[in-house]
Design goal:
Layout lengths: L10 E3 L5 E5 L8 E2 L28 H8 L6 H4 L12 H11 L2 H7 L7 H14 L8 H13 L13 H11 L2 H7 L7 H18 L1
Antiparallel strand pairs: 1-2, 2-3
Length: 212
Amino acid sequence: MGSSSPKSRGYLDDEDGNPIAFFSPNAPLFCLRLSGPPVGPRLAPTKFEPGVKYFVGTSWPASERARWNRRGQPDEAETRPRQRAGQQPYTAEEKAWLKKHYQGEYKSLMSYGLSIYDEENREEGRAIMRAMVSPDEDDDEDEEDKEKEEEEDDEDFAHPADYLFDSKERAWIKKHYQNCTTFMSSYGLKVYDPDDCQEAQHLVMDFMSDDE
C-alpha cells in the first residue's frame, strides 16, 4: 500500500507496481476508488455517518478455509505410490491373450530370456505383455487378419523392441545378440521404460561406430 498524499489517503499497487486503486481524501472513512485520483468511479452516497464507530464482521466457511489450507499441496493421486506395470497378476483376459499368442506365460517368458521361477522375471514379463497389448484392443476378425498380414509383411518386427531401431541397427543386433529384446535385457534395460529405450538406441549407435 502506498503512502497518503493531498490527492489520496493511500493507494494500492498491483504486482508490477502500478496503482490500481486509491482511498478518497475527502471521505470521513476509508473509501476505495478504482481509478487514478482525484477522479475515480461515481459511487452512491456513503451509508456511513461521520463520527460513528462501526464494527465490521466477516465469516470464512470451513469448506473455503480447508481449500485455502490445501493450496500448494500435491493431490492425493500424486502422493499415492505409483504401481509398477507388472506388479499386479494377470487378469483372465490377459491370460487368454498369452495363451493365444504364446501358448501361455511359460513360453512367453522363455521368448524374452526370462524365467517363470523368478518372481522379478515374471513381473517383467507382465510389464512387457501389457506394453504390447493396447487397452482398447479390437477383437474383430477383420482387424486380426490385417494385423496378421502386417506381421507377415515385416518379420523383422518380431519383438516389441525392434521398433526402436532401423534396419541396419536390427541387422547388427541380430548378428551379435539374436534379437533386440535380448540385447536390451543383457544390459538390464526394460522394453517398457522410455528412458531405457533411449539408452538402448544410444548404445547401438556407439557400438556400431566402434565397429566402423
